[in-house]
């Protein structure tokens, strides 16, 4: 979405198409297929001070703290159960989030979280463009950290440019080695912290210190460390521009009331360096604007975007160019916010001399908010009402049934009782829909026999039983009979139910 106007009364900017066309005629024609790709121009992002830079530092510190500290938080759940506050227990097939315990059968909660995350980003984009990309995306956070390390070791922007152009010397080698060593250390900490979310953190740390980790843990640490080092240290803005799928369709989430990083070209064009002998009245008379073409907005951009060329897919909406431009405007005595967060409707209103407006409640924001609220309420209700008991039944298919010598018919079933509580439970199991049924458990005489069985499931586990159901010849119905297998908790009275069939000749 571009804020530039075609009407010459609204902008002083020269026609960019004309410039590009003239440049195209001036350049020699290249042979088709001569270049397969365009070399990546390396971005040397300069440091900057300002409110958006401070906000980025605050968000970065909070997010890194949450990432590295969370695996070490404890949450008491009872004996024999992991006490790590957030843990994805792959061995035990559980996911623990504070007081919430998620079983594999409850994977729909993960679906709900993904929906909330997706529409949360939609909502944020509708309000403030790529604010997620500029502040909270892991690629942005770690790239920002790596760039800070690079500036501390190799120096400011101009120094880094000269260093890369200079021949290899001992001093250059030392700086490069120190930078990459710091990057590797951060990457190892990142990969190690990620693995802590899937293992007990103190236990795994002890194994790491003693060199006793398994090959699987070592492989995942190496994988996550390498991806961090490559993405944040080498690929950087290329991930945001070419790899990330979100940048491809985020423009569909914005409208004329979305706050975006905006260059006020009607005020800044035409561009020209500021001369000491030239007054601002003379500049305006010559058709020049407030932009002195210092390129500071480009130099501080982590993706190398020139925001003066309008909205571009490479802009991640971090606002660092706003800080850089405001600093320059203060130095030359001109009003700040030549580059600012603003909406297209506000920019048009300024040009027309109309009052600005902030319109947060719009169809998009309302729809996204309602969807998130519905999903959040559904997940909350499901968590509050979810049962602590679940029963599943699988009937043997080979053979479908067995006719015994007395004429009775027997079917075999595999019954699994899921006990989600933290204490052992006993359950009364019955088959509803069968008359005079006789139940027994293979290899367990204590489970009882007759029309009901008493089965026990250990705490926080799935108990599996092989159950035989025999129906006398006088009570057998030919063909298939619908039945319901009911498991009732003898302590709490909670019941689980599963539909099945009983087969007969």
TrEMBL record:
Residues 282-311 form the 4Fe-4S ferredoxin-type domain. Keywords: 4Fe-4S, Electron transport, Iron, Iron-sulfur, Membrane, Metal-binding, Transmembrane, Transmembrane helix, Transport. The keyword Mitochondrion does not apply. Residues 1-31 are annotated as: Disordered. Gene3D superfamilies: Immunoglobulins (2.60.40.10). It comes from the Bacteria. The chain crosses the membrane at residues 57-75, 107-128, 181-199, 211-232, 366-385. InterPro entries: 4Fe4S_Fe-S-bd, 4Fe4S_Fe_S_CS, Cyt_c_oxidase_cbb3_FixG, Electron_Trans/Redox, FixG_C, Ig-like_fold. It holds the Pfam family Fer4_18. This is Cytochrome c oxidase accessory protein CcoG. It comes from Azospirillum melinis.
